[in-house]
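User: Good morning. I'm curious how nicotinamide-adenine-dinucleotide would be positioned relative to this chain. Could you predict the structure with it bound?
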Amino acid sequence: MKRRVVILGATGSIGESAMRVARALPERIEIVGLSGRNNTGRLLELACEFPKAAVCAGDEAAANQLSHDLGRPVLHCEEGLLTLAALPEADLVLMAIVGTTGLKPALHALENEKDLAVASKEILVMAGELVMATAAKMGVRVLPVDSEHNAIFQCLEGQDPSTVKRLILTCSGGPFRKAGAADLASVTPEQALRHPTWSMGRKISVDSATLFNKGLEMIEAKWLFGMPMEQVDVIVHPQSIVHSMVEFLDGSILAQLGSTDMALPIQYALTYPERLTSPCAPLDLTALGKLEFEVPRTDLFPALDLARRAGTAGGTLPAVLNASNEAAVDAFLAGRLSFPGIWESVARAMDEVPFVEHPTLDQLIEADTAARKCL
Ligand code: NAD
Ligand code: MG
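Assistant: Good morning! Here's the predicted structure, ligand included:
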């Protein structure tokens, strides 16, 4: 079967990996829509490569320039993203915009009966209940792209959900796995961006260094798999080869292993339920020699405990955690906040922003806005 795919965030790290998958499987994947915000040069190249795709730029000026260069209309801003999300010729939307900007387009895609392959974990953390309920109502799928959730998705296939004891998310530990508290105070953006095993966008790289990435993923797992927070665990695995695991009632643990290449989970999401040849390098376990597992250092990295608290309380708390983290990461990258300042500011926002137990979308957006101001 051929999937007609819109990629929102096509110029980013996930977007580029998705392009690699699409190029390798032209018979199975057709790119019908593309968006990018600031890298207009790259968006122009991609739009030329996929001449039939509808294109959306970050602002009107970039859209006019691109339209002139391409000789076809180009959309822009949120309106444009919404149009792409509902393209009549699309079957599936891959959401790869960093942060929560993708929330409305993601909901719009589901409301227009498109399957949603979701890389942008922030939208599930902010509004997972709403996203999953909308998908269920419309009878469409939410397919996980995040490598951990894609691994769990594969391990759960054909299994009775009531036999699951816990989901075990693996975590590389980030670049400061072996650091001391004193080292963390002076971490620079350059050091935080140097991830030991994955090459990714700037925000997720900093999130991996603070372990907020894993915290966000715990909440993402809760919504994607309908699992209570206490059945979602994290284990440090520095090699990032076991992408995650599921433990069942009988004590069996199923795991998915693969090379550290996002093309693999992206392809599985885009071609699900089919397994096809992929452009990823095969995994050579004997070359690796050993796989290690450790307990996460929650004393030094409070992100996991904060995320567990937010995920357990539910309501507006995950949205507050997510938004305050997003603002804090921006401030850290701009040199306005220390590295430990990121979790300090998230903890403050979680205490200060008023809690709503069953929020509407508007109340989630209000909580998001209030949390960003707590910096
Ligand atoms: P990135 O920064 O490399 O790319 C982000 C993309 O979103 C770009 O195309 C950019 O132009 C677009 N974008 C950014 N802000 C936008 C806005 N306000 N409006 C419209 N478009 C905007 O990020 P990435 O590493 O590709 O990550 C994308 C998402 O996928 C994140 O939510 C991240 O957590 C998640 N994710 C990434 C990886 C990875 O390996 N990179 C793995 C798992 C999950
Ligand atoms: Mg991940």
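The mean pLDDT is 97. The chain is about 50% helix and 15% strand.
Let me know if you'd like a different ligand tried.
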